[in-house]
Write a structure and sequence with these properties.
- This protein is mainly α and about 140 residues long.
- It has one domain.
- Helix content is about 70%, strand content about 0%.
- It has 6 helices and no strands.
- Helix 1 runs antiparallel to helix 3 and helix 1 packs across helix 6.
- The radius of gyration is 16 Å and the shape is elongated.
- The two termini are about 30 Å apart.
């Protein structure tokens, strides 16, 4: 069996981390289905902001809206940068930071089980690993 090269492994990490980020964004805009549908976490922006407020109990609804919008902006930005392979190291580090923030807020506001069930720590570790790969296949870097 042939071993996968580091640049090809980095390509796989890039693509699936990017898709994971964009999938979460798609959910909050209802692209995966309506609230309550199988496999749908939020289904709309209002539910996502309510969840954001749960994770950030100190936040008012308006502040939760700002935090949710910022998270969404960074998820879209990092997700697209990872998929096209542009500024991969920085996008991966940003993704790792975002995933670590999500994991910690989920842990402290809900339980350690939440980020484990949603593989948030795994995404954090994958993004951190990707940031250490110098060049990935099929990238613009």
């Amino acid at each position: 069996m042939k071993n996968i090269s580091l640049s090809n492994a980095g390509f796989i990490l890039r693509i699936f981390l990017g898709i994971t980020m964009l999938s979460a964004v798609a959910d909050r805009f209802g692209f995966w289905g309506a609230p309550g549908a199988p496999g749908v976490a939020w289904g709309n922006w209002d539910n996502f902001i309510a969840y954001t407020q749960t994770l950030n109990s100190f936040a008012s609804k308006s502040l939760a809206g700002i935090l949710g919008a910022l998270a969404t902006f960074f998820e879209i930005t990092f997700g697209l940068l990872l998929i096209i392979g542009f500024k991969t190291k920085y996008a991966a580090l940003g993704t790792a930071g975002l995933m670590l923030l999500f994991a910690l807020t989920m842990t402290f506001s809900i339980s350690i089980k939440a980020p484990l069930d949603y593989s948030v720590f795994t995404s954090f570790a994958a993004a951190l690993t990707l940031s250490a790969i110098d060049k990935t296949s099929f990238s613009l870097d």
